Amino acid sequence: MTATIGILLILPQAQTQAQAPYGQAPYRSAAPQLRKLHPNDGRGTVESVGQGMLRLRLKEGELWHVVPARTATIEVVGTASRELLQPGQFIICGVKIDEFGKVIEPAARITFPGGGVPSIVAGGLGLVDPGVKRISGRRPAGSYMLAGNIQLVQDAVVTMQIGNEKFEITVPADAELLVHTRNFSLAAPGDIVAVRGEYYQRGQLSATLLKITLAQPVMLPTKNKTFPTPAKLTP
Which is higher by pLDDT, 192 or 16? Predict the structure, then answer.
């Protein structure tokens, strides 16, 4: 009788996990990538303003939540109502003074920056005419840029006190009253906006540049009677 010898072969089980082709890394979920918002996509209008952030409606009506970076360039421009001319407001104004330190021309433009450092800066050489008379102990007659707080307002005359010098400036009805500030909390729905920045997810932008053009003149707040406090920025 011939004996039959059986041979048992144990085969490896089939791999059930998909493998990447030779030479390629294993499949993984893609990590979020930091992207830049194209300048053409960063134009639109303000939808709403919150504490330290804005909601903007940009290209094709897409809504974005925007938080300016701490180092962002922010520019808010527009006009101001005349009632903003009041004691305590910080203004910048170009004037001409005589040899006695008196302002000799009405102001053509007043700018509200929302704050700053008081200063008196001469324009050019600070002289109206070559050889102009100068009184000892006083500034030479000429053009100056004044920056400081309003001390007093009487009718159309605004008084500024900068150091130990006092200037009385006539602000006529047709003078330009401008706002040029970093305070984006002044923005309102419908204001024109241009923004640049970076994002990981569409709709969530960290802004590196923010420019807002105000559609309406800035009015004096009824509660605190001061220039609105800048919104708090997040890192």
Answer: 192
